[in-house]
Amino acid sequence: MSDVALKYGDDISTDLIIAGKYTKTLNLQDLVDHAMEDIDPDFLSRVGDGAVLVAGKYFGCGSSREQAPVALKAAGIKVVLASSFARIFFRNAINIGLPIMECDTSSISDGDRIDFDIGTGTVTNVTTGAVIQAKPLPDNMVKILSAGGVVEYLKEQGSF
Amino acid sequence: MGGQTIAQKILSSHSGARAEVGEIVVCDIDLVMGHDANGPMAIRAFEKMGGTRVTNPEKVVFVMDHMGPAPFEKAANLQAVCRNFAAEQGTQFMTIGEGVSHQIMAERGMARPGGLVLGSDSHTCTLGAFGAFATGVGATDLAACLLTGRNWFRVPETLKITFEGKLDPGCSTKDVILYVVGRVGADGGNYKSFEFYGDWLEDIGTADHMTLANMLVEMGCKCGFVCHSNLGIEADPDAVYAEETVIDLTRIEPGLAKPHTVDNYAPISELVGMKVDQGFLGSCTNGRIEDIRIVAAILAGRKIHEDVRFIVTPASKAVHIQAMAEGHIATLMEAGAVFFTPGCGGCVGTHGGVPADGEVVISSANRNFRGRMGNSKASIYLASPASVAAAMLTGVVTDPRMLAEQEGAHV
Ligand code: SF4
After folding, report:
1. What are the φ/ψ torsions at residue B179 (nearest 5 degrees)?
2. Handedness of CA B7, B12, B18, B24 (dihedral sign)
3. CA dist list (Å): B217 to B7, B195, B222, B262, B382
4. In chain A, at which end, N or C, are there fewer CB atoms within 10 A of the end residue's CB?
5. Helix crossing, A150-157 with A139-147: angle to 10°?
6. Could you tell me the residue range of the domain that residue A58 belongs to?
7. Is residue A125 less than 8 Å (CB to CB) from chain B?
8. Domain end marker among B235, B251, B267
9. Do the domain assignments include residue B1?
10. From the CA of B393, how far away is ligand 1's center (Å)?
11. Residue B193 belongs to what domain range?
């Protein structure tokens, strides 16, 4: 099982992931329609049935808009790999159940096939054969992510 | 065991156990804020969690600041979701035109020293000017607070920044914080708490403390504190810091953040003469009465350049009324400025001053990401209110100190 990597650069802000003018909706499809459009007009067709988003440092900086990880997840992004994440994006992604892995992404090229395992934190570049180890997530985040996000977690647990 | 930073103290008092850096603690929240852009998602998530009654509704406020008055149908409907939920649940509600959430929470004294505030907005850190651990979260985190009255936190490391020396009187606090963001970098404080120190903090006022705290998130902060002598909370003398930096105020001149990142700092001398198309005075960074006074003093009795548009959006209704009472509204309108409803306005690009393709905006706000003001083909330069006003007069980037000198020459 592997998915195609869509590679972008450093400092991708939440304004670029989904512009503020498109966040005024509760309809997922409205968000999907405009995800990443200012940085990659072909984003949606490139995601197809599913893809891995790969970025450099400080992915998701800026606004706290949760619509950013929501738009990526709904568009078919299975995991975001970045060398670092902005704090609020990181937390939002876990909360809504979008897997993210902090790892050295410099060896991954656009179009490589990627396999990943959240449990072990390993990312395998199927195209080159390279194996990358991601930074482990704190336990409470793994629990939230395994539940599918905070909504499901709190539905089960009632409280933190 | 070393002493505690302010962030550690607040997380300790709210979790009931000594909070060590790197630990995860669960805390009771004192104030929860949702706005019209993210609040509705939080309300839906709350319902999906099985929520029926908000825990501590008196500690929850919804603010309609991101798109007021509603510019289109979807916005109106989202505001209705918040309005109805607030009425049903008995939370506080602040309607369109009251102003930007951070400004009105400050005006109403809603954030206390030692308090813990969560808002569905990244600039919630502004309330660190009042000694609160105030941090921005997303909609689902907000929903978790509505449901449980609590949330979890990773106890952050703290970065200590000390200001030394005297600031050139022709420079403002905005010039200082733009310089600091340029030095530290947009991700230089990611996940961290900040503590600002220095005698300079005693010389400046609350509005300036808010401008400093506001832009902390442009360095990735979780929260931050402007440690002046009346803050009402202090770190232990033997608190442990992850990093300490000194900023020499004597080296600072007016400066700007160039497109398209906030840490792309340039001293104004590098940009003088560059043509601009639009000016924006407003936002939770610099839309206060102090900022309007500065701009009114520069524009009084003059006209803005014929090639520019100047949009002024007071940060709150109280600011707007004060500006009216002091006569600044007439001064600015006679000079050619256009006023927009107090709130976020053009800052977030939904309405209130979207620039055209290829245009250059000089703005007193806090973000210049591509697309921020609603058009990804425009360029945004962030600057102080005085630098915005100077550019409005001349139509090009102008050092506000030069303007003062010219004035002096006329007398
Ligand atoms: S004024 Fe701008 S930065 Fe401040 S809360 Fe509103 S949109 Fe955010």
Report:
1. -65, -45
2. negative
3. 15, 13, 7, 10, 15
4. N
5. 90
6. 3-157
7. no
8. B251
9. no
10. 26
11. 158-251
* Residue B295 within a domain: yes
Number of domains in chain A: 1
Answer whether B285's CB lies under 8 Å from B211's CB.
yes
The structure tokens listed for B287 are 């839309």
Q: Pick B187's closest partner by Cβ from A15, A84, A140.
A: A84
In angstroms, the separation between the Cα of residue B354 and the nearest Cα of chain A is: 10
pLDDT digits (tens, 9 = 90+) for B346-356: 999 999 999 99
Which two structure tokens, joined as six digits, stand for B121?
Answer: 């907005």
Atom 6 of ligand 1, residue of closest alpha carbon: B344
User: Which of B217, B251, B285 lies at the terminal end of a domain, its last residue?
Assistant: B251
CB A56 within 8 Å of CB A85: no
Q: What is the pTM of this model?
A: 0.95
Would the CB atoms of B220 and A86 count as touching at under 8 Å? yes
411 residues of chain B, pLDDT tens digit each: 789 999 999 999 999 999 999 999 999 999 999 999 999 999 999 999 999 999 999 999 999 999 999 999 999 999 999 999 999 999 999 999 999 999 999 999 999 999 999 999 999 999 999 999 999 999 999 999 999 999 999 999 999 999 999 999 999 999 999 999 999 999 999 999 999 999 999 999 999 999 999 999 999 999 999 999 999 999 999 999 999 999 999 999 999 999 999 999 999 999 999 999 999 999 999 999 999 999 999 999 999 999 999 999 999 999 999 999 999 999 999 999 999 999 999 999 999 999 999 999 999 999 999 999 999 999 999 999 999 999 999 999 999 999 866 654 443
Whether B408 is in a domain gets the answer no
Considering the domain boundaries, does residue B410 fall inside one? no
- Whether residues B198 and B114 share a domain: the answer is no
pLDDT digits (tens, 9 = 90+) for A81-99: 999 999 999 999 999 999 9
In Å, what is the CA distance from B40 to each residue of A17, A70, B91, B106, B363? Answer: 20, 14, 14, 23, 29
Chain A residue numbers with beta carbons less than 8 Å from the beta carbon of B148 are 154, 158-160
Of B45, B138, B261, the CB nearest to A91: B138
CATH code of the domain containing A54: 3.20.19.10
Judge if B20 and B146 occupy the same domain: yes
Total domains, chain B: 3
Residues B254-269 pLDDT 10s: 999 999 999 999 999 9
Pocket of ligand 1, candidates B281, B366, B368: which has the most ligand atoms within 8 Å of its Cβ, to mutate?
Answer: B366
Closest residue by Cα to residue B232 from B133, B135, B131: B131
A151 interaction partners in chain B (CB closer than 8 Å):
45, 48-49, 140, 143
**Interface mutation target, options A23, A24, A38, A160, chain B, most CBs of B under 10 Å:** A24
ipTM for the complex shown:
0.90
- B142 near B163, Cβ under 8 Å? no
- Is residue B393 domain-shared with residue B284, that is, in the same domain? yes
